[in-house]
Automatic annotation (TrEMBL):
GO cellular component terms given for this protein: cytoplasm
Active site (record annotation): D151
Protein name per its UniProtKB record: Acetate kinase
Assigned protein family: Belongs to the acetokinase family.
Cofactor: Mg(2+); Mn(2+)
GO terms of biological process kind: acetate metabolic process; acetyl-CoA biosynthetic process
Organism per entry: Fundidesulfovibrio magnetotacticus
Length: 403
């Protein structure tokens, strides 16, 4: 069976069609600038194979339905069709926020759509986009089973003492204010991959997963269950990120209001868009930061140190919370590709059982699962490439096939 994976942003739509027998990606693409004067699709048929064909489309798309309709045309017809419409067996949607209602992937029906709508207030930038994708797919692929796979779901097992904030309890009851966590599909995927690599049942695998990409988060997984994660009610909490601050003193809001005359919305925007790596050195892509460091940029050096220190700090906290851990797993754009970050982040962790092997760390091969700890390290350290699309497809396929 082929599963179509959809990941919608407010003006974008990413997709992959995956053959679940072979896990081959039949096509992948991204549609950008939906709703603008001119839109764009970059479509790859049979990506990464000798038969790869790249198609570029530039035309306006009024909404997500128009964009998905055009993508469906590229998938099933035109210059490089990869499957017939009838061969799309199921559709898996990335939905960011499932609140407390969805701790598992869920077949989409009208009641599920209504519940996802309720969580728009918790993810105002993301859930409405996910809903637009669901609406588009419902119109274009009537009769095809659609499944919602939630970013928050893997964190559904976090215990109350770890997910509650120490604020009046009524606010949790009334508004659902608590830690939810994000990137759950990625954390779950690499934790499961680790259990396969170690040859252990997932239910007996404990690890700290470190997702360092555009957004950064960590999770503590005890015996296959997530017991803590660094993001909170929103994806602003926790680690330092490209443009997001991560943890700051919550009294920053009134302080900035008083001393800079900023509104709550302006402070929120400052913490989300002007902070993190960018706030310290003006650059938010780690590759640019390394280039600047090489040219002697002291602020770029400081930004890297701060970024790594936060990672160290959380790994230490999660090792303490886990009371026994098989491995620390680095993943996503920075985690997979940046040996300097991994080296700095693990530098001071030898005393608590995380010993990194410099040669292995710097000798890693891009895209491959690699052990980068020393042989005598009590806690192993791995690079495991994430694959959120495959995880969404796998969860969708399993649900549709009653597994
Ligand atoms: P992701 O969100 O997982 O796609 O990660 C994107 C981020 O990964 C980019 O913003 C870069 O900062 C970072 N990145 C990608 N490739 C590299 C690399 N070779 N070295 C360091 N950072 C990288």
């Amino acid at each position: 069976m082929n599963v179509l994976v959809l990941n919608c942003g407010s003006s974008s739509l990413k997709y992959q069609l995956i053959d679940m027998d072979t896990h081959a990606v039949l096509c992948s693409g991204i549609t950008e600038r939906i709703g603008e004067a001119m839109g764009k699709i970059t479509h790859k048929a049979f990506p990464g194979t000798p038969g790869q064909k790249v198609l570029n489309v530039e035309e306006p798309f009024a909404d997500h339905t128009a964009a998905l309709g055009r993508c469906a045309g590229l998938i099933t017809g035109g210059e490089a069709p990869v499957a017939k419409a009838s061969e799309i067996g199921a559709i898996g949607h990335r939905v960011v926020h499932g609140g407390e209602a969805f701790k598992q992937p869920t077949v989409i029906d009208p009641a599920v759509v209504e519940t996802i709508k309720k969580f728009c207030k918790l993810a105002p930038l993301h859930n409405p986009a996910g809903l637009m994708g669901i609406e588009a797919a419902t119109k274009l692929f009537p009769g095809v089973t659609q499944v919602a796979v939630f970013d928050t779901a893997f964190h559904g097992s976090i215990p109350d003492y770890a997910y509650l904030f120490p604020i009046p309890f009524e606010l949790y009851e009334e508004l659902g204010i608590r830690r939810y966590g994000f990137h759950g599909t990625s954390h779950g995927y690499v934790a499961k991959k680790l259990s396969q690599v170690l040859g252990k049942p997932f239910e007996q695998t404990s690890c700290v997963t470190v997702h360092l990409g555009n957004g950064c988060s960590m999770a503590a997984v005890k015996n296959g269950q997530c017991v803590d994660t660094s993001m909170g009610l929103t994806p602003l909490m926790g680690l330092m990120m490209g443009t997001r601050s991560g943890d700051v003193d919550p009294s920053l809001h009134p302080f900035l209001a008083e001393n800079k005359g900023l509104t709550i919305q302006q402070v929120d925007s400052l913490l989300n868009k002007q902070s993190g790596l960018k706030g310290i050195c003006g650059l938010n892509d780690m590759r640019d930061i390394h280039a600047a460091r090489e040219n002697g940029d002291k602020k770029a050096e400081l930004a890297l140190k701060m970024f790594c220190y936060r990672v160290t700090h959380y790994i230490g906290a999660y090792l303490a919370a886990l009371d026994g851990c098989d491995a620390v797993v680095f993943t996503a754009g920075i985690g997979e590709n940046d040996p300097d970050v991994r080296q700095h982040a693990c530098e001071t962790l030898g005393g608590i059982g995380v010993k990194i092997d410099k040669e292995r760390n710097y000798g890693f091969k891009r895209g491959q699962i690699t052990k980068i700890s020393t042989d005598d390290s009590p806690v192993a350290v791995y690079i495991i490439p994430t694959n959120e699309e495959l995880e969404i497809a796998t969860q969708t396929y399993s649900l549709v096939n009653g597994k």
